[in-house]
Amino acid sequence: MNQRILRSVRLSALACALGLSFVATQASAQSAEVVSAGSKACALSGGVTVTLLGLNTTLPLPCTGQAQVTAPGSKENSALGLDIGLLGLVSVVKVDVAQQRADYTNLAGATALDARSSAAGLSLVQNLVSLEGASGTLACDSLTGSTVLQCQAAANVADVRIAGGNVITVPSPLPRDFTVPVGGSIRLVVLGLTIEVPVGGALKLNHVTTQGAGTRNVSVTHKPAQLTLGGSVQVGGLGLVGVNVEAAVSPETINVTGRTPFTAVTVD
After folding, report:
1. Is the pLDDT of residue 18 over 70?
2. Would you say the C-alpha torsion 229, 234, 235, 241 has a positive or negative sign?
3. Bridge partners of residue 120, in order along the sequence
4. Distance CA 260, CA 215 (A)
5. Phi, psi (deg, nearest 5) at residue 54
6. 98 closest CA partner among 64, 74, 72, 129
7. Contact 118, 134 (CB under 8 A)
8. pLDDT of residue 190 exceeding 90
9. Secondary structure of residue 60 in the 3-state scheme
10. The dihedral of CA 178, 180, 181, 184: what is its sign?
11. Per-residue pLDDT at 19
12. Cα-Cα-Cα-Cα dihedral of 69, 255, 133, 198, to 10°?
């Protein structure tokens, strides 16, 4: 079902639970528990760390193609033909097309936050991992009188291949933290030399983290696909050369600051 229809159904159900008629106006009163909030969707995020001559150098890959709202309203963004390299590592992430949307809606007695992102034609770390597509949604609701932030997260991932191998069957619906082992080698350019570095790690699908339960500031992050790799090799004249990579596809984040501490954050 279309994600906008699903969101409308959720907001209507939320309004019914509050004894209201849902009208998507941005001037409606919000949850009394919320002081401020924000919703963000990205095409990509991550970072690379290279170890050379005993020193670690880290370069982050910030949120790319960002759609973000910190007040009632909606924001959309898109990205085409991304090919990003970091610290001598070419093609950390390649994406044909990505679309992101963030929404912030107030009802009388409720605040609803949504983020969704989708990407197609994905190649991670020199095509060590490829995906035909990945999409994710994250939705969180705060209700007046409740100190629990209630969230839902879901992901869809299509046609996963590791090192050009056969398509890996991904279950549907996709369970939380479905993990695929990844191994191979990647090319790293250091001081003009191309070095082959053996790496190992995992592709984690439909991964969710929460922070701040028990405090006024809570955060929920959903990553439909997250690749984590690391490895090293001894090179004459350079010693140990190592590389660690983290690449997240279509990540979404929701942050909420409460009037009082949130006792819990639930994610279904």
Report:
1. no
2. positive
3. 97, 133
4. 8
5. 80, 0
6. 64
7. yes
8. no
9. strand
10. negative
11. 55
12. 130
CA atoms in the 13 A half-sphere facing the CB of 74: 9
Longest dimension (CA), the chain: 72
The Cα 150–Cα 34 span in angstroms is: 13
Q: Exposure of 161 by Cβ count < 10 A (0-12 exposed, 13-18 middle, 19+ buried)? A: middle
Written as one string, the DSSP assignment of 210-231 is: EE-TTSSEEEEEEEEEEEEEEE
Question: Where do we find the tokens 């279309």?
Answer: 2
Pairing of strands 110-124, 89-107: antiparallel
Query: Which tokens is 41 given?
Result: 């969707």
C-beta neighbour count of 127 within 10 angstroms: 15
Helix (H, G, I), strand (E, B) or coil at 177: coil
> What is the CB neighbour count within 10 angstroms for residue 246?
19
Counting residues of the chain whose pLDDT is more than 90, the rounded percentage is: 81
Contacts of 192 (CB under 8 A, 6+ apart): none
Q: How confident is the model at residue 25 (pLDDT cuts 50, 70, 90)?
A: very low
Mark 198-211 as b/e (b = at least 16 C-beta within 10 Å). ebebebbbbbbebe
Q: Are 100 and 67 contacting, i.e. CB atoms less than 8 angstroms apart?
A: yes
Please give the distance of CA 105 from its chain centroid, rounded to a whole number: 21
The rounded radius of gyration (Å) of the Cα atoms in the chain is 20
75 pairs with which residues across the strands?
Answer: 102
